[in-house]
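Reminder to self: keep the SMILES exactly as supplied, no canonicalising. Ligand is pyridoxal-5'-phosphate.
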Amino acid sequence: MDEGDLKKLFSKKLSLLKLSPIRKVAALLDEAANDSEIISFGGGSPSLIPPKELIESFIEDLENTPSEFFRYTSTRGMIKFREKIAEDVYEYSGIKYDPNKEIMVTEGSTEGIFLVLSSILEEGEEVILTDPTYLGYSEIISFLKAKEIRVTQLEENGFQPSLDEINEKITNRTKAIILNTPENPTGRILREDVAKGIVDIAKDKNIFVVVDEAYKHITYEKDHIYLAKYDKDHVISVCSFSKEASSPGFRLGYVCANEEVISNLEKIKQFVTLCSNVVGQKFLMHYLASDLKRKYLKEIVLPTYKARRDFMIKMINEYLPDINVNVPEGAFYLFLNLKKYLRNKIYVDEEVMLDLFKKKKLVIIPGSYFGKQGIGSFRLTFVSENFERIEEGIRRLSEYLKSDVF
Ligand SMILES: Cc1ncc(COP(=O)(O)O)c(C=O)c1O
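Structure tokens returned for the bound complex:
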């Protein structure tokens, strides 16, 4: 067989997909998994574990009714689980979704985003994305041969998108606006007037707002704004259990939307995953079944992340006092503008990240991964390291930025 023979067998569409740069960082960390000197402010995987009571009730349930854990369920997800999701969404947002018609359980919000974009986009159509934004949207848009159009989010405006710019960028090819709130990477929560303004534009132009709400429960001083309360038909809400229930390994999330959207997602999902992880659905049913979720968020998750956030900011103020920190309102990332130190290196932030890893065993994420507006900034997560290691990491960052290399 000639070298290249196999290459001919693959779809040309694959050239439209790149390996996610964050996965590259994860691979770097995997390689060095046994090196405890490495401090990671990189990936957004919670270091907390789900509540102990939840694990215990799950094990008991597994022992009592094992057969229920190892079978297929309907493509939309177990109906009892969807009922619990509907109750939970109503309790927090006041929005009513019919569990039979308007909710679809997915393999994490990642599958949700893929199903939504696959079901709405045609070749050549456009999707409005914010800049910066989470990097899980661009590649799918390009894989579907559609085009992303970015709207800027400026640090001086608290990373709120401009309604005028969104309006200006909508054409007759625009199908959707995708954004996330609370936002990865900036931590901003959409302001109420901006959220309503975006939904009004979508209604007026008859396009979708796809809102990725993976961090809807990870909020500090301000509450999350539920966009669907302004219009359930044009807003597609994509949610996840990965962050709120500290369970990304179960790969579970859900989509709430108009019934037509959900039946179109189902058409695709039946051939992608057939149905979502049943063991995870059973586990998360216990999470939603009592006041466990509210207690876990209030007593464990939010105090832990808030304390780490405040401590990381305190350390930055101490070690890098000339850096201005935008305090994140939600999620678990600081988006740190390091332009002052980077000077002519701002356009090679990936090289800076690799050099910092090599010299100081510290991982931070280049802002350019999230869009052009991110150039000169780095994303640091406070979700995974304890106080001592947060201080050590910031100390190393300061030492590196103040060293001769710069
Ligand atoms: C904004 C955002 N959306 C979606 C995801 C993917 O989450 P899931 O584990 O639900 O696929 C992440 C993960 O970091 C994220 O930050």
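Points to follow up:
The radius of gyration is 21 Å.
Residues 44, 108-110, 134, 136, 180, 184, 212, 214, 240, 242, 248, 253 surround pyridoxal-5'-phosphate (CB under 6 Å).
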